[in-house]
Write a structure and sequence with these properties.
Radius of gyration: 18 Å
Strand content: 25-35%
Structural class: alpha/beta
Helix content: 25-40%
Strand order of the largest sheet: 6-9-10-3-11-12
Largest sheet: 6 strands, mixed
Number of strands: 12
Distance between the termini: 35 Å
Mean pLDDT: 85
């Protein structure tokens, strides 16, 4: 039994089926990778696991430690140890960095915040009192978000394209964080197209048309994806964002 189990998940957005009878188990303490073409449902799957607004009206069930998450709101899922690292980290305009990192941290001390900043390669003397705003580069925002997630000590981390829009140094910090998550026994689920990122996973799942096409070793799945998958139009390609807004 995995720490997180998805059974027969089907979800429609904008009148289109994005996830189709999808079932998958994620093992505790492992680094998993989700790969697949655009429109395959990868980011939708992460949003559904997190229980974000607009992604909860699905059939099937999601189990955490064998217990259903149906009807469990996103904030409660976060309290139970699930967190989502955005492909494009949100800015909290004007919020000081030490408060941002401490907000969800298990240990809220200034010393711990300094340790987390250091772990992601940001000098606490330069960044601790700085505001989280548009003056930060994309790589800096990714590292600040990563520091906040490390401070949370989550049980499950969903990482959507962790290498998007960052430099080589920031990417290495992500790799270091993956090793640290593994040391902590955190379950990591990465959505990626990057072979460099994929190499840091222990096994992989290939998504196509909203369901798991194959699973296995990273070499097996990456080889199939690189050599057998070709660009194509998917019937389940998400509608434009403005069409997906729900009450």
């Amino acid at each position: 039994m995995g720490i997180l189990e998805l059974h027969d998940i089907t979800l429609e957005l904008g009148g289109k089926p994005i996830l189709n009878d999808l079932s998958v188990d994620f093992w505790e303490g492992h680094v998993h990778a989700l790969i697949g073409p655009n429109g395959a449902g990868k980011s939708t799957l992460a949003s559904t696991i997190m229980g974000l607004p607009g992604y909860t009206d699905h059939s099937g069930d999601i189990l955490l430690d064998g217990e259903s998450l149906r009807g469990v709101p996103v904030d409660e899922r976060a309290r139970r140890g699930i967190t989502l690292a955005w492909q494009e980290p949100a800015r909290f305009e004007g919020l000081r960095m030490d408060r941002f990192i401490a907000a969800g941290a298990k240990e809220k001390s200034r010393a711990n915040v300094e340790r987390m900043l250091t772990r992601v390669g940001l000098d606490p003397e330069r960044y601790l009192d700085r505001k989280v705003d548009k003056t930060l580069s994309g790589g800096e925002r990714k590292r600040v978000e990563l520091a906040s997630i490390l401070a949370m000590e989550p049980r499950i981390v969903l990482m959507d394209e962790p290498d998007s829009g960052i430099d080589v140094e920031a990417l290495q910090r992500i790799f270091d964080a993956l090793a640290y998550f593994k040391e902590m026994g955190t379950t990591v689920i990465m959505i990626t197209h990057s072979m460099a990122v994929l190499e840091h996973a222990e096994h992989a799942f290939l998504l196509c048309n909203g369901h798991i096409l194959d699973k296995g070793s990273v070499d097996k799945i990456s080889g199939y994806f690189a050599n057998n998958c070709i660009p194509c139009h998917h019937e389940n390609e998400p509608a434009p964002e403005e069409e997906m807004i729900t009450a």
